[in-house]
């Protein structure tokens, strides 16, 4: 798999340098590359308790991305998914620890425990006060003697960091970290494995499946489950967390494991709020990439019982820009649509012929959804079929409230319906088409003349003309041939649509941004939709 790296051997050191460069001098790294990879604050006051965490790289922004006021003092970075060395951890401790002491926050993996633990012993031999806490928030493997530390670690970083920033002593900071660890629970789910730089991608998750309870280093989950969308995925995650849930309200941390889109993460957040524990979640951190697993297409959910002290600490200011902050989880606020946008609904009326015609047009466009999407993927963003089908479904659902017996009002009502339900430029253009057709009908034009007026208007507004490789290449000849009947219009539309496959330069739409090689041999999906519509109406 292609990645924007130079070499797996220099990946982590170059990434750290990039992070430090972009910090306006707030961060620095210790000398000692490549074996010592430690990011530290440059503004650190040694009179306060230092917080040091770290582990293998590949979890960015953890851990170096959380170095800054209100969170970590130093982050010790290993190679990808590999614990840092004892010397590296010791260097981090010595670099930031003063008389107030240091707290090490360690995820529960053997390498991290051993290396951080031995470094702590060596630091104590230098006379430093060092405490260490082990985060074990993962509930995926209930029979595991030592649970893994995953995204719940961020709760510890933030709560301990807020107390340390306020000047609390080492015993107070350590006790708060231990209480947070005792309450934090997490579990994750992914649709795909991660891509370790320099290694082939493991393809263990079957098609149509998701992996539940997988680790943040690409470890296999407890089971592969049927994937049936975001709602079912969140329900399974909640079901595994519920037995470990404390009483009262909780703080949620919605973590992107690296490859999920912001759209997906927002949908998952909505499903958390709608779930049967949603009323017990009062605050949320994220959704955001916090403790990732390279490019893993998944998420994890962490929960922490909320008391006044933990909510205050989680909501306290923190400088690291990777920390998204604490927000209340509230019901969506809904405000009324302004009067100028809310259309005046025409009086509904029935006309069996017009109803049947519109219903048939909608059926044709819905049936063509997949084919038109596939065609659009050749020269656009692959959504023409879905855009047209979505509008068709909405229009079919609106039939009972349309003025079917009044052509003038019917054109206008269809235009309004499309402007509200059909996205993209095509929705706007078709809304203009039917609005102009309604105006022409009101001025006495025949139904064919009204449609021709609509075509003239969208060419005027949109700027496209026949030959520009758009839906107009099929619509214009179809309307010109319509006086000879539907079969003639269908033939003209088909010839126009087929001709777009020979047009290697588009002058409108997304295809205008593509070169000849991407367009040759592929019909314009809008023109193809028009051709199919006329053909099946004629048939």
TrEMBL record:
Entry GO terms, CC: cytosol
Domain DhaK: 7-323
Membrane-spanning ranges: none
Residues covered by the DhaL domain: 352-539
Pfam families xref list: Dak1, Dak2
Record-level Gene Ontology MF annotations: ATP binding; glycerone kinase activity
UniProt keyword terms in alphabetical order: ATP-binding, Kinase, Nucleotide-binding, Transferase
SUPFAM superfamilies: DAK1/DegV-like (SSF82549), DhaL-like (SSF101473)
SMART domains found in the cross-reference section: Dak2 (SM01120)
Gene Ontology BP annotations: glycerol catabolic process
Protein name: Dihydroxyacetone kinase
């Amino acid at each position: 798999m292609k990645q924007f790296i130079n070499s797996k051997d220099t990946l982590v050191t170059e990434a750290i340098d990039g992070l430090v460069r972009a910090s306006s001098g707030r961060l620095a790294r210790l000398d000692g590359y490549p074996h010592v990879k430690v990011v530290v604050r440059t503004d650190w006051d040694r009179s306060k308790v230092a917080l040091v965490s770290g582990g293998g790289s590949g979890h960015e922004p953890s851990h170096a991305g959380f170095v800054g006021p209100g969170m970590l003092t130093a982050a010790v970075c290993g190679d990808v998914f590999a614990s840092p060395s004892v010397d590296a951890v010791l260097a981090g401790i010595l670099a930031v620890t003063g008389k107030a002491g240091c707290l090490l926050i360690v995820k529960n993996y053997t390498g991290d425990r051993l290396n951080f633990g031995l470094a702590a012993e060596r630091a104590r031999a230098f006379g430093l006060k060092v405490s260490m806490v082990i985060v074990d928030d993962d509930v995926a493997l209930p029979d595991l003697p030592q649970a893994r530390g995953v995204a719940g670690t961020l709760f510890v970083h933030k709560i301990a960091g807020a107390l340390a920033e306020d000047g609390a002593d080492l015993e107070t900071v350590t006790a708060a970290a231990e209480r947070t660890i005792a309450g934090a629970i997490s579990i994750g789910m992914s649709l795909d494995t991660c891509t370790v730089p320099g290694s082939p991608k493991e393809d263990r998750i079957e098609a149509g499946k998701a992996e539940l309870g997988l680790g943040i280093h690409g470890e296999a989950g407890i089971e592969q489950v049927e994937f049936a969308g975001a709602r079912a995925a969140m329900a399974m995650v909640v079901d595994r967390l519920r037995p470990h849930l404390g009483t009262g309200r909780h703080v949620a941390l919605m973590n992107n494991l690296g490859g999920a889109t912001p759209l997906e993460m927002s949908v998952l957040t909505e499903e958390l709020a709608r779930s049967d524990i949603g009323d017990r979640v009062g605050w949320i951190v994220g959704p955001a990439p916090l403790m990732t697993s390279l490019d893993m297409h998944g998420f994890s959910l962490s929960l922490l019982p909320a008391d006044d002290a933990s909510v205050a600490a989680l909501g306290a200011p923190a400088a690291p820009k990777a920390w998204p902050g604490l927000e209340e989880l509230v019901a969506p606020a809904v405000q009324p649509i302004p009067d100028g946008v809310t259309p005046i609904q025409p009086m509904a009326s029935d006309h069996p012929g017009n109803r049947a015609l519109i219903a048939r047009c909608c059926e044709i466009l819905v049936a063509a959804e997949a084919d038109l999407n596939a065609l659009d993927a050749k020269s656009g963003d692959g959504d023409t079929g879905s855009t047209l089908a979505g509008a068709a479904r909405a229009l079919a659902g609106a039939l009972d409230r349309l003025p079917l017996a009044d052509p003038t009002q019917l054109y206008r009502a269809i235009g309004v319906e499309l402007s509200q339900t059909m996205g993209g430029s095509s929705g706007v253009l078709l809304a203009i088409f039917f609005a102009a057709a309604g105006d022409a009908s009101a001025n006495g034009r025949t139904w064919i003349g009204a449609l021709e007026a609509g075509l003239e208007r969208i060419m005027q507004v949109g700027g496209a003309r026949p030959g520009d490789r758009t839906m107009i290449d099929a619509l214009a000849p179809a309307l010109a041939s319509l006086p000879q009947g539907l079969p003639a219009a269908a033939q003209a539309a088909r010839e126009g649509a087929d001709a777009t496959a020979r047009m290697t330069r588009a002058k409108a739409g997304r295809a205008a941004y593509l070169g000849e090689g991407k367009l040759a041999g592929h019909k314009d999906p809008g023109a193809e939709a028009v051709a199919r519509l006329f053909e099946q109406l004629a048939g």
